[in-house]
Each structure stands twice: as structure tokens, then as C-alpha cells.
Specification:
Largest sheet: 7 strands, mixed
Structural class: alpha+beta
Number of strands: 7
Helix content: 25-40%
Order of helices and strands: EHHEEEHEHEEH
Strand content: 25-35%
Radius of gyration: 15 Å
CATH superfamily: Gcn5-related N-acetyltransferase (GNAT)
CATH topology: Aminopeptidase
Oligomer: single chain
CATH class: Alpha Beta
């Protein structure tokens, strides 16, 4: 049986998180993104999490609160290529949404994410609304999709249920 655990990112996870990033090149990240990730790991703007698979980080992501805009912004959100399609990404997403819903200071209504057109359908499937498309919106030249999730539009029970369903998929 596979052991799955979501926990806070720790400095000891750095090499594993960079390996997760590297496993997703070049399809999911552009030039200069690794340096940006390293800066995030050195000084995160908010809580960051890993999903361990048998004690080894297999996914990483976090969020930051934008106090003046009543929103949280998801950052990174990546899964080792080996685990694509396993449910780890969905588990990480719903763990972060639950954390925003229960622990964000100050409390916030919206959760936003910017991502590539390739990943945008994943977020839409999970209940995010596409709010804008920026052609060439990333410095790498990749198009950027911005999406929004309304935390006030779902109950904690629904978020927990969706997190638990993703966990069940990971351990099946």
C-alpha cells in the first residue's frame, strides 16, 4: 500500500522539489522559471506544502494572501511527472483550498491561479472559472490563463469531500 501524506514544506525538501520541477521540463515551465522557484523556496510568500509518496515529496505548491484584494494566489502547484494522472495534483489543490478556507489571515473569499493553456482545463474541472487569457503573458512567451475559485460558493464539507476523494484516488 502506498503511503500518502500532505504536510508543510521544509528546507530538507528543496532537492526533491527541484527534481519535481525538472521532471516537468520543458512542457510545463519556461526559461527562468527554475530561478523563480529557487527564490520561492528560499523565501516563500505564504504557506507551502508537499505531498509525500512513501516518504518522498511527489508534489509541491503553496499560496499567498493578497490582503488588499480579498484573494489568495496559488503558487507553483506541480506534480512529479511519474505521478501525473494519479490524483496527487487534485489532492494538493484541495488541501490548499481547505487551508485557505480554514486558516487564511485575513480570511479571503477568492483563490486565483495563473497557469498555461495546457493546465487550465485541470483547474476548470476542479471548479475554477477562467477569468482572462494573456497571449504571451509569461516572460517565457507562453500564454497565461488566469482562473478564480469562489471559496464562499462551497462548504467546508464539499471541499473536504473533494480532498478525500482525491486522497482515495491516490491510494487506490
Amino acid at each position: 500500500m502506498t503511503s500518502i501524506l500532505t504536510r508543510r514544506y521544509e528546507d530538507k525538501d528543496r532537492a526533491a522539489v527541484l527534481a519535481i520541477f525538472d521532471s516537468n521540463l520543458p512542457e510545463y515551465f519556461g526559461d527562468g522559471d527554475r530561478e523563480w522557484l529557487e527564490e520561492t523556496l528560499d523565501d516563500p510568500d505564504g504557506p507551502a506544502f508537499v505531498v509525500d509518496v512513501d516518504g518522498v515529496p511527489g508534489a509541491f505548491g503553496g499560496y499567498e494572501i493578497w490582503e488588499h484584494y480579498n484573494k489568495a494566489l496559488l503558487f507553483w502547484g506541480m506534480v512529479a511527472r511519474t505521478y501525473h494522472g494519479s490524483g496527487l495534483g487534485k489532492l494538493l489543490l484541495f488541501e490548499r483550498l481547505l487551508h485557505v478556507a480554514t486558516s487564511a489571515e485575513p480570511p479571503t473569499r477568492y483563490v486565483t491561479v495563473d497557469t498555461s493553456p495546457q493546465v487550465s482545463p485541470f483547474f476548470q474541472h476542479c471548479g475554477f472559472e477562467l477569468t482572462s487569457v494573456w497571449p504571451g503573458g509569461y516572460r517565457s512567451g507562453m500564454d497565461m490563463h488566469e482562473l478564480r475559485f469562489d471559496i464562499a460558493g462551497v462548504s467546508l464539507e464539499e471541499l473536504t469531500g473533494r480532498r478525500d476523494a482525491a486522497f482515495a484516488q491516490c491510494t487506490a
